């Protein structure tokens, strides 16, 4: 075996009936013996340890999952362990039922290589029906063009119309109370402005109608004092009273209404003029809670 230059070159086959010298022998990874090209497989040299690393997988007919059989264990015990622990019959339809093209009459099975998602309807189709006219694409969904707060208002109205309904979560209660408080503040501000406007109009009318009478009577007797309905200040003429109300109380009321109409988010300190917009912001960006 070998040559004078390479005395260890080549080895004999381990099969008794062969013993052929092979200069490129094969070593079995199970029994660690040397074999020639003809007897290198497990079956050819009848390897006694061939099943030690053998991988045998059986497909379960209940859940369609692969069950690996352990070489040193009884297959019945392995099967019983699988059925009692990890067998899920609901997985059978997910594995066996293949996804097909939704176009009527098309039986093409959708795989990784032939699936195209439509950009408009976002539905998977095969390559044959990937274009919109081929699968009668309805087109992209149209955005809601209605008033953005109509959904919120209708939702609040539905909640108020159902008194027997179970109480909503704390976030909804807080939003409802905040909306009611904002509506009350706005209503009181509008009522005060309306009252002030009516009083001003009455005073103007009195001033226009009795300007001649007040000028003639002022010469013979002391003029009647006019009292401001807001602060109680007294003036000698109606015109002076009207100018006082316009300069002092009307500007103060306008600035007061402007300050009351700006609401600040308790979480991010972002200001909103509309209380409904603030409620929608809290429910959308802060999970419906106002606690910091």
Automatic annotation (TrEMBL):
One of its GO terms (cellular component) is cytoplasm. Keywords: Metal-binding, Repeat, Zinc, Zinc-finger. The keyword Repeat applies. Residues 226-254, 263-291 form the C2H2-type domain. InterPro entries: AN1-like_Znf, Znf-C2H2_ZFAND2A/B, Znf_AN1, Znf_C2H2_type. It holds the Pfam family zf-AN1. The keyword Repeat applies. It comes from the Eukaryota. GO terms for molecular function: zinc ion binding. Residues 7-55, 95-145 form the AN1-type domain. May be involved in environmental stress response. This is Zinc finger AN1 and C2H2 domain-containing stress-associated protein 11. It comes from Herrania umbratica.
């Amino acid at each position: 075996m070998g040559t004078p230059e390479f005395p260890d070159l080549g080895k004999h086959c381990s099969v008794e009936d062969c013993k052929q010298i092979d200069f490129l022998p094969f070593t079995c990874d199970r029994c660690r013996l040397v074999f020639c090209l003809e007897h290198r497989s497990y079956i050819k040299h009848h390897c006694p340890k061939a099943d030690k690393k053998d991988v045998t997988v059986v497909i379960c007919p209940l859940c369609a999952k692969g069950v690996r059989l352990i070489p040193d264990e009884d297959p019945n015990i392995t099967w019983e362990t699988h059925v009692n622990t990890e067998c899920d019959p609901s997985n059978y339809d997910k594995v066996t039922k293949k996804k097909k093209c939704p176009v009527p009459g098309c039986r093409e099975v959708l795989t990784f290589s032939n699936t195209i998602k439509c950009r408009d309807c976002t539905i998977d189709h095969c390559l044959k029906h990937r274009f919109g006219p081929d699968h009668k694409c309805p087109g992209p969904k149209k955005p809601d063009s209605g008033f953005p707060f109509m959904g919120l208002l209708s939702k609040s109205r539905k909640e108020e119309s159902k008194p027997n309904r179970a109480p909503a979560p704390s976030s909804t209660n807080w939003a409802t109370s905040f909306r009611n408080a904002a509506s009350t503040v706005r209503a009181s501000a509008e009522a005060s402005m309306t009252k002030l406007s009516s009083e001003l109009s009455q005073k103007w009318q009195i001033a226009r109608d009795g300007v001649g009478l007040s000028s003639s009577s002022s010469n013979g007797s002391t003029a009647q004092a006019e009292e401001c309905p807001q602060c109680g200040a007294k003036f000698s003429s109606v015109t002076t009273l009207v100018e006082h109300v316009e300069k002092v109380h009307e500007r103060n009321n306008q600035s007061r209404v402007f300050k009351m109409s700006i609401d600040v988010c308790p979480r991010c300190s972002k200001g909103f003029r509309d209380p409904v917009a603030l409620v929608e912001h809290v429910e959308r960006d802060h999970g419906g809670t106002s606690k910091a």
